[in-house]
Design goal:
342 residues; mainly alpha; two-stranded antiparallel ribbon; two-stranded antiparallel sheet; 71% helix
């Protein structure tokens, strides 16, 4: 794909793109709109997990439970204590980030399989608490979430919820780009490649891991809050191991170390169950088959294949890289003093 180099053309293209997204509810029915809302929610969750697994290389499996913490923070505060949803939304991310930061402790000394096992046990503990702490979570009875209001506008129905979810998805995507283009984002990749070399380069391994666990958990909490708003009713079983498989599949299928991949994976893994709704027994088998095929034949995910054929633009972890690339290209063709080219 040829990149649009003109800032004006990029601005116009972005404006047209967002205008088209804003008009999506005009062309959908209620059910299709609900599926689209779920796609956006899972895109946020996929971006958060990609921070942890893709960019930082930390194989932690507590993401579904952290999503549940975000969802229940919103549900309990809004339903039991009457807190506004617009306050619950950021609080859900903060609470999940605080709890998720606890995962940093085993991450300091454990790697790969051992870290995965510890965080998996941590996730199961969270689900057990959600089921058995009935005085707060209502256990398996579940919690309903009412439609919030914003300046007199009642966010009721899938089409109204869409605009809230779309705004949050755009904000979280923009934030992810800014983080990854910063020194912190490059530090994530450094510890993924080699922790010893990263430490020799002056990167604090402990602080970087703490940051990536907290950021990933924050995204899971925000996604959980929006998930609760989208469904309107949540139960602890919604955040079990199958939910974790969906998150993992989104990252692997879409492509690790790619924000585009998180969005692509969310689209594919959200629509696939809807296509197989009449064949419930085939869903888990299909997930397994798709994951196996991607790992064997598409190790870089769908996004990696699309980039290889020029159908997706590059994702560079450097702010202002387009300007640097243009300056480098211009300087490369300037004639030197001898009349030749550099």
């Amino acid at each position: 794909m040829t990149a649009i180099r003109s800032p004006w053309l990029r601005a116009v293209a972005a404006l047209v793109f967002w205008a088209a997204l804003c008009m999506v509810p005009l062309a959908t029915d209620s059910y299709l709109q609900y599926v689209i809302n779920l796609v956006l929610v899972y895109a946020i969750i996929g971006i958060g997990l990609n921070f942890l697994m893709g960019y930082a290389g930390q194989f932690a499996f507590a993401h579904a439970a952290l999503m549940g913490i975000g969802a229940y923070t919103t549900a309990v505060l809004a339903t039991r204590f009457g807190v506004s949803y617009w306050v619950c939304l950021p609080l859900s991310g903060i609470v999940a980030a605080v709890v998720g930061s606890v995962g940093t402790l085993p991450a300091m000394r454990m790697k790969r399989v051992y870290l995965a096992l510890v965080t998996l046990a941590f996730a199961e503990l969270i689900v057990w608490v959600l089921i058995n702490w009935k005085q707060v979570t209502l256990g398996t009875d579940g919690v309903s979430i009412g439609a919030p209001e914003l300046f007199g506008w009642r966010v009721k129905g899938d089409k109204n919820v869409y605009y809230v979810v779309l705004t949050c998805t755009a904000a979280m995507y923009w934030l992810a780009r800014r983080i990854l283009e910063s020194r912190l984002g490059r530090a994530f990749v450094a510890i993924r490649e080699n922790e010893i070399v990263a430490q020799c380069s002056g990167i604090s391994i402990a602080r970087t891991k703490f940051a990536v666990f907290a950021i990933s958990a924050f995204y899971a909490g925000i996604g959980g809050s929006l998930y609760a708003l989208t469904l309107g009713f949540i139960v602890p079983e919604s955040f079990n191991l199958f939910q974790l498989v969906i998150h993992f599949s989104i990252v692997v299928l879409g492509g690790m170390m790619s924000l585009y991949g998180a969005v692509i994976g969310a689209v594919l893994l959200t629509t696939l169950p809807e296509l197989l709704r009449d064949f419930q027994a085939l869903q888990e088998m299909t997930y397994g088959a798709v994951l196996l095929a991607v790992i064997v034949f598409l190790p870089s995910g769908v996004a990696g294949v699309l980039k290889r054929y020029g159908l997706l633009p590059r994702e560079v972890l450097a702010r202002g890289w387009r300007a640097l690339e243009r300056n480098h290209t211009a300087s490369a063709v300037l004639p030197d003093r001898a009349g030749g080219r550099r």
